[in-house]
Design goal:
Number of strands: 18
Helix content: 25-40%
Bound molecules: NADP nicotinamide-adenine-dinucleotide phosphate
Structural class: alpha/beta
CATH class of the largest domain: Alpha Beta
CATH topology of the largest domain: Quinone Oxidoreductase, Chain A, domain 1
Order of helices and strands: EEEHHEEEEEEEHEHEHEEHEEHEHE
Radius of gyration: 20 Å
Distance between the termini: 17 Å
CATH architecture of the largest domain: Alpha-Beta Complex
CATH superfamily of the largest domain: Medium-chain alcohol dehydrogenases, catalytic domain
Amino acid sequence: MASSTAWDLLVRRDNLTAFECVPADPAPLEPGTARLAVERIALTANNVTYAHLGERAGYWTAFPAPEGFGRIPAWGFGVVEETAHPEVSVGERFYGYFPLSTHLTVHPAPSATGFTDTAPHRRRLHDFYSDYRRVGPYEPSDDLRTALRPAYRSSLLLAGSVTAATDRRPLSVVVSSASSKTALGLAERLGAESDVVTYGLTSPANRAFVDATGCYDEVRPYTAVAELDPAGPAVFADLTRNQDVVSAVHHRLAGRLIRSILVGGTHASRPLDPAGLPGPAPERFFAPSAEEEARRAVGAGGAEARRREYQAAEERFTERAADWFRVTTRTGPDAMADAFRQLIQGPGDPAAVRVVRPAAAS
Ligand SMILES: NC(=O)c1ccc[n+]([C@@H]2O[C@H](COP(=O)([O-])OP(=O)(O)OC[C@H]3O[C@@H](n4cnc5c(N)ncnc54)[C@H](OP(=O)(O)O)[C@@H]3O)[C@@H](O)[C@H]2O)c1
């Protein structure tokens, strides 16, 4: 396919290995709509989770596709290429939720920070996914930022939830899939808290990578859960949704575990069965709900200070993380197909960050 052609990566909803970049023919804009060229997106385990939860949680509804197929969502940057909206201008750049496509047509409702896409098909998904933030021109750190921003936003919310829920100290926090960006962000954030001790659990092959980041007080492979001996009460943040990992941690920490939080599904092979797990019942973490809660907690008066604090924390994390990750940025449909193939084949090198620029001109 010519790299100048508009295209969508379509995947069979019931078989993620069946996918293809197919030419797209965007319809003329209706009044009140605008079209963004997708400038760059990053693929992480999170995108696979979106696909796995596509039917149940509505992720397939974000971007319409032919019957039986889906367009997988990803976070990234886009630039307005065409507009039929009086308050949205060509050339404006936004951060938000995009399909693995060259273009996204939106129905913008302008806000103080950008716009909300009010397209009717997006109503099933939480507002969190329809919020597009206006950003400045491209800068080189945006490539890594494309991968880290969505993860780190969840890390900050998760860290807030972990520390706010108890005053007991020292507090131990055990984090699985410790090499994932979301987990690293969580550990980095918790590292700033006094009397919070973090324990990372990871695949044996990823242990050296996780150790080298210095984010955790202690790092162990999944095979050594039995050696965990955290001080004080413990919280478990699970990003694997793997029965064996969750069960091993619950048994090992029995009596000391005060919360078990299900965050992700990087090693999910079958639905998690919480029956028979000792300790607290696992609770689900959902970043959009945590965001709502955090906004309510600070109120309208604290919103700007919170936004600045999050932004500054993200900048610090992105600078620090630049030493851990190797970013490759490729352009066009073949690059997208390769990156998606590598993602679903997994597990890949945790240091590799794959950014794709769908359209050659962006
Ligand atoms: N609930 C929420 O609101 C929320 C918010 C953000 C993220 N999440 C979830 O958190 C998880 C991590 O997301 P992320 O963007 O941080 O991912 P990421 O950086 O791409 O995570 C990569 C890590 O996941 C593990 N992994 C990935 N693919 C695998 C495979 N095929 N087989 C075995 N292990 C694999 C490996 O870690 P190890 O070897 O260390 O296990 C790998 O280093 C995702 O499931 C995502 O959906 C949830």
